[in-house]
Amino acid sequence: MSCVSCRPESGFDIRALEPLFVDHLPRLAHMCDSASFAGDLARSFFLTEEREKLLTRAALLHDIGYAPTLRRFGYHPLDGALFLEEQGEHPWVVEGVLRHSWAGRKAGLDPDVSASYARRPLLPEADWLVRAVTVADWRAAGVGGRVSFARRFQDIATRNPHNPDKVRRAGIMVNEVRDWFFDLARDMPADRPLPWVFCDVDNTLIRPGDRLSAPNKAAIRAYVDAGGAFSLATGKHPLSIAPLARELGLSTIQVAGNGSCLLENGEIKVLAELGEAAEALALALESRGLPIAVYRPEGIETGARWPQSLDEIFEHYGEIRPTRVRQSGAALKILCIVDGDDLRREEELRLLAAEHGVDCCRSDRHFLEFLPKGGNKGQAARVVMAQAGWPVLHSLAIGDTENDEPLFALCGACAAIGNASEWARQGTDWTVGPCTQDGVGGFLDQVREGRGWEGLRSER
Ligand SMILES: [Fe+2]
Asked: Which pLDDT belongs to residue 10?
């Protein structure tokens, strides 16, 4: 694990972390992903190098007290802090571990634990770090993986169906911790007053079959004129969105092919491809009688089972016309036409994806997509912002379905469009108006008029 390899100058030797969790790898993954989020937090909000180091260390170690061999009180923040203190760890790191996520303040604590907390004075100078570690803790799923605040809460709610009290408390906590994040995010330099918005296209910005609406277009223009950045982030072929990017006057890079490629100044840049898996996967899908389309930089080619009627659906979606002839170039993704209501089929195809070492996600009720590992909207948005030297968490995502999830997880905050799937709405910080009522435009106006992070708050 890369985050475990960093060599400390003093305190606990990080190389000893992994052996403590040999039988608890999901917990270790959670700690590593918290540390990685903390790194983004530090770099996005311009913490000094020294503070960055302390914060990422505290985030990495925040759950060390779960290691079975370190158990003393059976209360992980206290057990972890006591151990790290003995290891000569920096007092701010110890404080971050001791008090992260409201530790020591929860009701029903063991009297010995409460007494230990009462004996330890608060360290006001480390308060920022306690908050930042808490934010990082809430942006890494319990078993590892980066998630939005709302998805982390959902995760807790799903894992504790018989503990409504815990779920209720988590609901209050997630709102508070999200607001701490907004407080951190507020002080952006004047030349970047507004977050970079990554916006899905189909069923989010535009309802398939419709044109870009005048209110959405005006809102995007006003947002960019006010110093914001805006990029499309779509599963579509890059050539399909080139006219839309032009109509919007966007000078940014667009995310296409579900993050497998970018559209930059009319040029397509491949970020990830299916490689050898493409051929075998296409065969396996076609042998099941399923219509498929393979996306390549130069265009879209259909499989043998593609009926003519599907060309019209593509047209309806504003996708470029697929061809029957084999094209050259990398396979960016395979789109498979299969109804999402057929749950057995869905499970079978997701297993198939795993067998071929590729990712699989649904972008529509009828569209199941097979994507290269490392080719998703979140990773592509990171590349786009890195290229522009833009702080990665100074960003907002808007989307409606499963293929937007990595984008929701990457960005500082995220919104679902009103007509989004229930899953997407539960995993986002806000739900905005529906696509048919220019929900994207309304949200952009709200962010612009509220001067970015300053006007954004958790809904209570
Ligand atoms: Fe944690």
From this structure: 78
Torsion region of 40: left, alpha or beta (phi above 0 gives left; psi -120 to 50 gives alpha)? alpha
Instruction: Give the pairing type, strands 413-416 and 292-296.
Output: unpaired
Q: Judge whether 44 and 395 are in contact, CB under 8 Å.
A: no
Q: What are phi and psi of 413, to 5 degrees?
A: -150, 170
Q: Residue 119 in contact with residue 125, Cβ under 8 Å?
A: no
Q: How far apart are CA 88 and CA 79, in angstroms?
A: 15
pLDDT of residue 9: 62
Ligand 1 center from residue 80 Cα (angstroms) = 12
pLDDT, tens only, 184-205 = 999 888 889 999 999 999 999 9
- CA–centroid distance, 137 to ligand 1, in Å, is 5
Helices (H) and strands (E) in the chain, counts: 18, 13
CB neighbourhood size of 136 (10 A): 30
List, for residues 21-37, the tens digit of each pLDDT value: 999 999 999 999 999 99
Q: Which residue has the tokens 């569209």?
A: 367
Q: Catalogue all structural domains in the chain, each as residue range(s) with its CATH number.
A: 2-137 (1.10.3210), 196-271+376-450 (3.40.50.1000), 277-371 (3.30.1240.10)
Report pTM. 0.94
- Ligand 1 centroid – CA 174 distance (Å): 13
Cβ-in-10-Å burial (0-12, 13-18, 19+) of 141 comes to buried
- For 368, the 3-state DSSP assignment is strand
- What DSSP designation does 121 have? P
Residues of the chain with pLDDT under 70: 1-9, 460
User: What is the 420 CA–ligand 1 centroid distance (Å)?
Assistant: 29
